Amino acid sequence: MKLKASQAAVRPELGFASRVKKDWRRYHSVYIMAVPVILFYIIFCYVPMYGALIAFQNYSPGAGMMNSEWVGMKHFVDFVTTPDFFVLLRNTVMLSILSLIFGFPAPIIFALMLNELRQRSYKRVIQTVSYMPHFISLVVICGLIKTFVSRTGFITVLFCKLTGSQPIDLLTNESFYYPIYILSNIWQGMGWDAIIYLAALSAVDMSLYEAAKIDGAGKWQQLLNVTLPAIIPTIIIMFIMRMGTLLSIGHEKTLLLYNPLIYDRADIISTYIYRMAFESQQWSYTTAIGLFNSVVNFILVIIVNKICDKVSGTSLW
Amino acid sequence: MSNRVKRSLGERVFEVFNILFMAAVALIMIYPLLYVIFASLSEADKLLAHSGILFKPIGFSTDAYVMMSKNHMILRGYMNTIFLVLVGTTVNIVLTAMGAYFLSTKGPMFKKAVTIIIIITMYFSGGMIPTYFTVIGLGMENSYLSLILPSAVNTFNLIVMKTAFSSIPDSMRESAYIDGAGEVTILFRIVLPLAKATLAVLILYYAVGHWNSWFNAVLYINDREKYPLQLVLREILVQSDTSSMSVGTVGSDQYAISETIKYAVTVAATLPILFIYPFLQKYFEKGVMIGAVKG
In this structure, is residue B234 part of a structural domain? Predict the structure, then answer.
């Protein structure tokens, strides 16, 4: 006891340098292991962050960052005042919100219904089948969508039989773009996204249901009073994480699906960045748009996190 | 079984409805894949004349698969992708394991600083263009390094692995250290074998990611000989350019066979992944849960 006390008294007197030295002596191999990882983050995350400063320049690759002229907020103003701005923002926000409204509840409902199945092996089969699409590559998915909704594709044929309309390539008509995008997203992601809810559901204490039954609760009341409260924290966490990507819906799927005929509905901020950068070489302008996008995203996460914290007491931080 | 409890009519109606509804969902999930398989085995000219649902192949022909297996671009793409999956996933796993080992070690005084450096990147990034210039600036254009290094560590996966490592009792690592084992030995002989489930899931995530990725290759790879499979697929499926495919056929014949080839390459590109996943399925739920505990 006495020894320990004296050690504790001595320890704070060690200087920073000797603390580092001691730390290095004990943990040097752990630090060496971390070096490649830290280098990765510096080179591929922090160097580009520094590189994003070209958003405030008229950057040309020939001149380099040092010799390019600084123009302040010019590119941000240009973006916000371009006639395309409204269309891009509308499409980006609409696709995200529609995905949220339809795509977010789908796996929850699916998980709840799957959870009600009492035939174990049947349940297993359904679940296995449901998350198969998750593993198919986006290139293949989009190739299939294009084929299936083409003039002779089976989805077009079914759709036209149901509505009695003339078969056309659905991807050339802009009014079909949002439904195609959202439904294919749900098709691909629902089963996979349900896994986390199913896990939360399987952790619910069965005795709670017994108690509810004894108190005379029907199935519906059990759902409202036992099942839902048990998975609400999971739902909220997933919701906040989802909100953080509200303005960053992937450019990959859109790039594979869209065509100039439907730009008015399909073009989103990230695909616009891609085209303006790699087709018109507007490097600074597009970097500025990207920066604008990630700042808005970050603010959204903070706001949503705050709201969820206030309303329900569950939050990311 | 205590399921003999009497259930109301409403409950039984719901149960029947639920069973049927779930069957319908499963059918919708799997039908597009069945369609692709049926179409790939159909006779090309008959398939072209047909429109709508398929319940079985129209006629039967494996021409599309034969054509495909003779195609240089597809074989090349396949080899390139397999190489990328093997090397890329190895780099991913080694770096992720080392990073996770550092983050799960109790004691290093600069751990907190490193953690902050990593977490910041989850919320901020330079964006597509500055990243592009960084990779080009490192001279990685047209090299597979550009497809492996910029995605070498996925922060989400890193956290998943760190969580798995942290759940291993400290005393095990401590006692091995006192017995004179180096940290590398502890990582490979003690920690990784104990985190086998998580390791399996992350290998799957990374490998599937490499198999399916295409966008970085669009940015960085110009040499067609180096195209990964997904870029070849993109030409055939999305840009509907099968000209490189049907050498030796002419006119309408060429057009017809290009239809079935599309489906055959889809099968060839998708089956390998669908084959491995049932074997790893039991690990999924566990892996997903670990990630969810702290995102």
Answer: no
